[in-house]
Amino acid sequence: MRASLVAGALAAAAALAGCAAIPDDQKRNAINEVNAEFRSQYERILAEQGTRFYRVSPEEAFDTLRVTLTRMGMRIGDQSPSIGYLNVFAPAPTPLDQDEWLKAEAQDLPKLREIAVKHVGLRGNLIRFEPEGLEIVINGTTLPARSGTEVSLTVRLREVKPPQSGMPRRDYAPPSAVRMGLDKIWRNFEQELRTVRAL
User: Fold this and answer.
1) Is 132 left (phi over 0), alpha (psi -120 to 50) or beta?
2) pTM to 2 decimals?
3) Calpha distance 187→175 (Å, rounded)
């Protein structure tokens, strides 16, 4: 019985989505609330995972970060080794692979849809993250600190093509994707440091 109710609700949502366009103000309200929620989580994640200290020179940290991110599929957009600044980008969901992205999406999609339903009704159950047409932009800094280097990362989204759904774009990547992406970058960065020092 419960399964049939869920199926009925999804069918009704699909019918509503097909019959009427979502008003622009409802779309904006939904995305604004999603942005506020994801921004809060993003700032918390960066405070916890966005910066690490390494007992290496700023030059070694910068070179290692550049090699790490390019090997993970990112392209260099801008760099200034003298001030320890690196900007890279790639089509979303890089640096996550497809399996990693699906795991992150599964964790964050319920929250996205919960917020969307409040503003657009049952049609919110059909909303997805739409990584297509987005680039992941990562800024890295390597700054001298306490006999070593402080390495920091930030992650943002950049639209290169409008979404097919017609929904406004979010400003922030899904929180679970940010966590997984940062963890993956740090693992690869530390492995690269060990490899270089072993040569």
Assistant:
1) beta
2) 0.82
3) 18
φ, ψ for residue 9 (rounded to 5)?
-65, -40
* Helix segments in the chain, DSSP class H: 2-19, 24-49, 58-71, 98-120, 175-198
pLDDT in tens, 82-96: 999 999 999 999 999
Q: What is the DSSP letter of 160?
A: S
Locate tokens 């089509």: which residue? 91
Question: Going by C-beta distance under 8 Å and a sequence separation of 6 or more, which residues neighbour residue 69?
Answer: 86, 88, 95, 138, 140, 185
pLDDT digits (tens, 9 = 90+) for 167-198: 667 788 899 999 999 999 999 999 999 987 76
**Per-residue H/E/C for 108-136:** HHHHHHHHHHHHHHHHHHHCCCCCCCEEE
